[in-house]
Design a protein that fits this description.
Layout (H helix, E strand, L loop, with lengths): L7 E2 L3 E9 L3 E8 L4 E8 L1 H4 L2 H15 L9 E7 L2 E7 L3 E3 H8 L4 H20 L2 E2 L8 E4 L4 E3 L6 E2 L20 H4 L6 H17 L9 H10 L5 H4 L5 H10 L11 H19 L4 H7 L4 H4 L4 H4 L1 H12 L4 H9 L25 E4 L24 E2 L13 E11 L3 E5 L6 E7 L14 E6 L5 E5 L7 E10 L8 E2 L1 E5 L1
Antiparallel strand pairs: 1-2, 2-3, 3-4, 4-6, 5-6, 7-9, 8-11, 9-10, 12-14, 13-20, 14-19, 15-18, 15-21, 16-17, 16-19
Helix pairs in contact: 4-6, 4-10, 4-11, 6-9, 9-10, 14-15
């Protein structure tokens, strides 16, 4: 069936517009009228739906992804049929594909390519641990979300390692630009086949082009079987031999030489990212978020002034302005990413690296100041530093509240907030808003309640309901102190997507 705008599936999902089309299905942007959020709906083509084997493959995709719980994989929300045509409802990831990024930018920065490869490999690792081989790893099937993170999607020809597959050996599936030699020959496909394809994707990110070209798809597939890859270091002079070695091992035709599993490849990619970060002398963008997830021993191979630029700059500032400790720290903060140190990624969510100037105090009913100079401490990822409210006699605020506003510029569909405080017991709410500036007061029409803190503990995880809307402003609104408290301290605030 086709789905013109306005079509409602399952009395719940309203089709808005097509956003992608493949051989088996069309993907639509839709609106979940129950939870009031955008979703992606993959609807099988009518002509394909007549084939019982194809229908079973389509259902298999839903079952395959539903098994996965990973921040690096686009998840399934629902699956059903309408008018004998199956459809799958997926998370809607707003952003571009990795292929679109390569087409528009050409060669990606080396450290960025390594960071994306780590995220893709982690997504594949989750699939492989669930006994699922993707079988069609390519940059078109990697979505870059609005925060810059890479997520694997489209398990349309995925195959379980523990089930009888409908896709028999002897049939070549997948895109031949990235197909493994064994898949091109119709041999058994294993997790190592996905790693080969990822190696080709990494090659393309580094060089701006796929390694093989031919008159047709068969010719390209045979290049993967017979021909050695062009030397990636000749195509991208200046990259490290460490990262080049990852490409070589991932794309080895000999399975005894190729990486045996995703975990082994991830370890080498993490080492390569540390090397490339050291070589570049800086760390920015999505690389910052991925770097913060590396094992501590790997991160420590990078000089402290690169790993912690704000601390390095702060130390220099302290030498110049002796005694101006707070001013030096604020100067050091700049606008680099905060990273995600000590975040607790769980339930398929992961912490966001915020700007170090993202937090401001919020005191609209008072003097409009609430220890503003301390606000950077709430996102510096150092639990020993804190932002504090002013002192209130007997814990009497004498106003609706005070708080901290987090700027998630340009916008973020945060699902949870994590609050670390050395002064538990206070109560409050989390409010959200859009717009160029935060609303002028907590009860202004622009704010909406998205979470509650009935009684804060030393570390409180607050589930947020943004209605699927990307919000720029997140207000931690403190409304009451615990008995005996005269101030509240916050050492860290994390947002999770």
């Amino acid at each position: 069936m086709s789905a013109p705008p306005g079509t409602v599936l399952g009395a719940r999902y309203r089709i808005d517009r097509p956003i992608g089309r493949g051989g088996m299905s069309t993907v639509y942007l839709a609106f979940d009228m129950t939870l009031e959020r955008p979703v992606a709906v993959k609807l099988m083509h009518r002509e394909v739906a007549r084939d019982s084997d194809q229908i079973e493959r389509f259902r298999r995709e839903a079952r395959a992804i539903a098994k996965l719980s990973s921040p690096y994989v686009v998840g399934v929300i629902d699956a059903d049929e309408q008018d004998s045509t199956p459809y799958i409802v997926l998370e809607y990831v707003e952003g571009s594909t990795l292929k679109e990024q390569i087409r528009s930018r050409g060669q990606l920065p080396v450290d960025e390519a390594a960071a994306y490869a780590i995220e893709i490999a982690r997504g594949l690792q989750a699939a492989h641990e669930a006994h699922i081989v993707h079988r069609d790893v390519k940059p078109q099937n990697v979505l870059l979300d609005e925060d810059g993170g890479a997520r694997v999607t489209d398990f349309g020809i995925a195959r379980s390692l523990i089930d009888e597959g409908l896709t028999a050996d002897g049939r070549v599936l997948g895109t031949t630009d990235y197909v493994s030699p064994e898949q091109a020959l119709g041999h058994a496909v294993t997790p190592q086949s996905d790693l080969y394809s990822l190696g080709i994707v990494l090659y393309e990110m580094l060089t701006g082009d796929v390694p093989f070209h031919g008159e047709n798809q068969v010719a390209i597939a045979m290049c993967h079987v017979r021909d050695e890859l062009p030397d990636v270091m000749e195509k991208r002079p200046g990259m490290s031999t460490t990262l080049a070695s990852v490409v070589d091992h991932a794309t080895a035709k000999d399975l005894d030489v190729r990486y045996p599993d995703a975990g082994t490849m991830i370890a080498d990619l993490e080492e390569a990212l540390a090397v490339e970060t050291s070589r570049s002398g800086q760390i920015t963008g999505e690389v910052t978020a991925v770097f913060e997830t590396l094992p501590s021993g790997t991160r420590e191979r990078v000089e402290p002034k690169i790993r912690h630029p704000r601390r390095w700059i702060g130390a220099l500032a302290a030498l110049v302005v002796a005694g101006a400790v707070i001013a030096g720290v604020v100067l050091a903060l700049g606008q680099r990413g905060t990273g995600t140190k000590d975040a607790r990624n769980q339930g398929g969510l992961r912490a966001v690296s915020l700007s170090q100037g993202a937090v401001t105090a919020y005191d609209p009913a008072g003097d409009s100041a609430e220890h503003d100079e301390e606000t950077p401490f709430a996102v510096d990822r150092d639990p020993s530093t804190t932002w504090s409210t002013e002192s209130y006699l007997n814990g009497n605020l004498a106003k609706p509240g005070v708080g901290l506003v987090v700027d998630a510029n340009p916008a973020l569909k945060a699902r949870e907030m994590d609050i670390v405080t050395p002064t538990p017991g206070w109560r409050g709410r989390v409010l959200g808003a859009t717009g160029a500036e935060p609303p002028a007061s907590a009860d202004a029409a622009g704010w909406k309640e998205i979470g509650q803190v009935p009684s804060a503990t030393s570390r409180t995880r607050v589930r947020l309901d943004t209605g699927g809307q990307a919000l720029r402003w997140y207000l931690l609104w403190i409304e009451g102190f615990a008995p005996g408290q005269e101030s509240v301290k916050v050492s860290e605030v994390y947002l999770y997507r």
